[in-house]
Amino acid sequence: MVDFFGWQMPLHYGSQIEEHHSVRQAAGMFDVSHMLPVDFNGEDSQRFLQLMLASDVEKKLNQNGRATYTVMLNENGGIIDDLIVYRLADQTYRAIFNAGTATADLEWIQSKAVSQFSVDISPRHDLNILAIQGPDALTKSSNVFGTTPPEELKPFRCIESNGFFVGRTGYTGEDGIEVLCGTEQAKLLWESLHDMGVRPCGLGARDTLRLEAGLNLNGQDMNPDISPLASALGWVVDWDPEERQFIGRQALTQERTRGLRRRLTGVVLKGGIMRSGQEVLTDSGSGVITSGSYSPTLGYSVALARVPAAATGTCKVVIRNREIEGRLVRPPFVRKGEKVHK
User: Yes or no: is domain 261-330 CATH 3.40.50.300?
Assistant: First the structure.
């Protein structure tokens, strides 16, 4: 057990490597109740989220039951948080905040909502979150839910049934669902899934899984001083319609006009283990590893690094005063359990 932003969280339940392989090959489950669901209700909910988020909520969430991944920016275009937003009903939305930023997120959105919008912002501290991930996750979950068949959900869709909120989303690069429910329901669900052979997994496997999938970690690969354009997240920014003036748009527009100086890319290396903070030497200057680890699926080290925008090809990573040759590649490193890069 380790401290994680004030929460006592399991690093692993016995073997981080075995937990990682369980998710890639079968099914694993994570208790991610440290994350905070927040509901938005009121006649101005959509208009408020259009201002607060870089994605066009009106377009991306044009039907009840849809979900989208997006970012919330500050005035300088830096990432306050990355989050998934669900549309539950007309003018009713649910966002999932990261644990480390939840308090600041709430203060930020509440400061923007005061006297400007008719919107009710409700943190849902009563809800727990379980993530069931892996190629067998939907089958195993369907056997447990019975009348709530997650296999009928399309990716980035959600459904509410029998007191469960189920979204076909996740943070591992595998198929699966995330379930929000009350504490007693969460305990019973966890036990039922365990009886079905779904393996409990901790923070360690969650990190290596998301890294193999090329997914950013808030606070490492992105932060309030870095824009989504420099974090390989430019695809979540909706520039049209031009009249939608979301917070951070002006700064992003200026950055896009002048061109990126640095970008986030992948690195593979077979002669050592990359870690956050290590220097990366490229043909265009130096960069830094933002997230790095051993890849259990591939058998060598993979990382995300912020490097000069023009950098390509081979690089060198400085590990314990040694320069070890690696390659810059486009993430992800693993998709559906298989190697992606050449």
Answer: no
Q: What is the pLDDT along the chain (342 residues), one digit of tens a residue?
A: 999 999 999 999 999 999 999 999 999 999 999 999 999 999 999 999 999 999 999 999 999 999 999 999 999 999 999 999 999 999 999 999 999 999 999 999 999 987 789 999 999 999 999 999 999 999 999 888 765 566 678 999 999 888 899 999 999 999 999 999 999 999 999 999 999 999 999 999 999 999 999 999 999 999 999 999 999 999 999 999 999 999 999 999 999 999 999 999 999 999 899 999 999 999 999 999 999 999 999 999 999 999 999 999 999 999 999 999 999 999 999 998 899 987
Could you list the beta-strand ranges (E) of 106-261: 120-123, 128-133, 158-161, 164-167, 176-181, 199-200
Side-chain half-sphere CA neighbours of 166 within 13 A: 27
Question: Are the beta carbons of 301 and 308 closer than 8 angstroms?
Answer: no
- Cβ count within 10 A of residue 243: 5
Chain-centre distance for alpha carbon 185: 25
Phi-psi region of 318 (alpha: psi -120 to 50; beta: other; left: phi over 0): beta
Cα–Cα distance measured from residue 1 to residue 70, given in angstroms and rounded to the nearest whole number: 30
CATH number of 2-211: 3.30.1360.120
Ranges of each domain in the chain: 2-211, 261-330
Tokens of 53: 């988020």
In order, the DSSP letters of 48-78 are: HHHHHBSS-HHHHT-STTBEEEEEEE-TTS-
Burial of 138 (0-12, 13-18, 19+ CB in 10 A): buried
This prediction has a pTM of: 0.95
Contact 329, 315 (CB under 8 A): no
Apex CA 36: angle with CA 35 and CA 41, to 5°? Answer: 150
d(CA 33, CA 179): 10
d(CA 206, CA 16): 9
